[in-house]
From TrEMBL:
InterPro entries: LptF (IPR030922), LptG/LptF_permease (IPR005495). It is found in: Cell membrane. It is a multi-pass membrane protein. Pfam families: LptF_LptG. It comes from Brevirhabdus pacifica. The keyword Nucleotidyltransferase does not apply. The chain crosses the membrane at residues 48-71, 92-115, 273-292, 304-322, 334-354. One of its GO terms (biological process) is transmembrane transport. This is LPS export ABC transporter permease LptF. The keyword DNA-binding does not apply. GO terms for cellular component: ATP-binding cassette (ABC) transporter complex. Keywords: Cell membrane, Membrane, Transmembrane, Transmembrane helix.
Length: 374
């Protein structure tokens, strides 16, 4: 049964990852290509999102796999034979328990190692894309509007990156409108951000209150472009980039660098620790719930519904725990409640499955009493 669980789990995980990844990739593709990025950059971004996608879908894949395999084993009467041989429900669910521990191990590696590393690399790529002014702003032969009240036109961009025949209209101020014209320009990186350095041009400034126009010729003039860049990848580091040990420490220096509270640090750290155990609890729930009520030729539809509703309740509990831990740093233990409650639920179901007489007695009590003979 363990081998069947592994193969089925891999199949469902592949399908769920593909569906989720494609949905994310479509929006990412539109955003990157519209910003002038290449297909290679898109492939790098989508590949780096895979660890987090896999981490999200593995518990669901484990649950579906245990439901599918256990249902098939029950329908083929294998469980009936094993129960007749004296195996208890606890022994029958042991393969699912071992399988769930394997899923937990894989999820732990993802949560503590691969996902943080991929997020760090995504942050670096976002910084490079945000700094790529040519890709975001500079397109020859088109009137561009990089910000409200700002219009930019470039007739030609040479192979060396030199801009020819520049028009830059800045109407972002309520008091003055400024028009810059230049024969050529270069984009220069500086400490305060990228600068558009224009050569051999002039500026026309219109003072709106009195409608006075002034013209100034210049040999070179710098215009700050940093305000036009997309946010993301620049500024404070994201706490999701940090290793779990640093999150647990939540030092004042780390909190100051990220601008996040101690509660946010502890929530992220303990979520990484607790989340993998959801894979274990969901796998055990999927297997144990189908043992409830014994074998029936009518199938296990009710047991499947019980398992599904239990998983939904665990997800709601997990959301509540995250909200509580985020607002109060002393509430981080609540993050461990969903997997613990899930395992306790599975134990309770197995306890009931080990006592089929309860269901027989309930059926007997519900049956109508036979009529007395005349």
């Amino acid at each position: 049964m363990l081998s069947q669980l592994t193969v089925t789990f891999a199949f469902f995980a592949l399908i769920l990852v593909a569906v989720y990844w494609v949905n994310r990739a479509i929006s990412l593709f539109d955003r990157l290509i519209s910003d002038g990025q290449t297909a290679w950059v898109f492939l790098q971004f989508t590949a780096l999102t895979l660890p987090n996608v896999i981490l999200l879908v593995l518990p669901v894949a484990a649950f579906v796999a245990t439901l599918y395999v256990t249902n098939r084993v029950i329908s083929e009467s294998e469980f009936v034979v094993m129960q007749s041989a004296g195996m208890s429900p606890y022994r029958l669910v042991r393969p699912a328990l071992v399988f769930g521990l394997g899923v937990t191990l894989v999820m732990s590696i993802l949560a503590h190692v691969l996902v943080p590393l991929s997020r760090v690399e995504i942050g670096r790529m976002q910084a490079r894309v945000a700094q790529d002014v040519t890709a975001q702003l500079l397109t020859e032969g088109q009137f561009l509007h990089p910000a409200d009240g700002v219009t930019l036109y470039i007739r030609e961009i040479t192979e060396r990156g030199e801009l020819r025949d520049i028009l830059l209209a800045d109407q972002s101020s309520e008091k003055v409108d400024v028009l810059y014209l230049a024969d050529r320009a270069l984009v220069v990186r500086a400490e305060e951000g990228p600068q558009l350095v224009m050569f051999d041009g002039m500026s026309q400034t219109l003072r709106l209150p009195d409608q006075r126009l002034s013209t100034v010729a210049f040999k070179d003039f710098s215009y700050d472009l940093s305000g036009f860049l997309e946010e993301g990848g620049i500024g404070r580091p994201d706490l999701r980039f940090l290793p779990t040990s640093e999150l647990l420490a939540a030092s004042p220096a780390s909190r100051a660098a990220t601008g996040k509270s101690r509660a946010a640090f502890l929530t992220e750290a303990h979520s990484r620790i607790a989340q993998p155990f959801l894979g274990l609890s969901l796998a055990v729930i999927g297997a144990s719930a189908l043992l409830l009520g014994g074998f029936s030729r009518f199938g296990v539809t009710r047991q499947i519904l019980v398992a599904v509703f239990a998983v939904i309740a665990l997800q709601l509990l997990n959301n509540l725990a995250v909200d509580a831990a985020t607002t109060d740093e002393t509430m981080w233990p609540t993050l461990y409640m969903p997997p613990i409650v899930g395992l306790l639920f599975a134990l309770g179901v197995l306890w009931l499955a080990a006592r089929p007489a309860l269901f027989v007695r309930r059926s007997a009590d519900a049956a109508p009493a036979p009529e007395a003979a005349p």
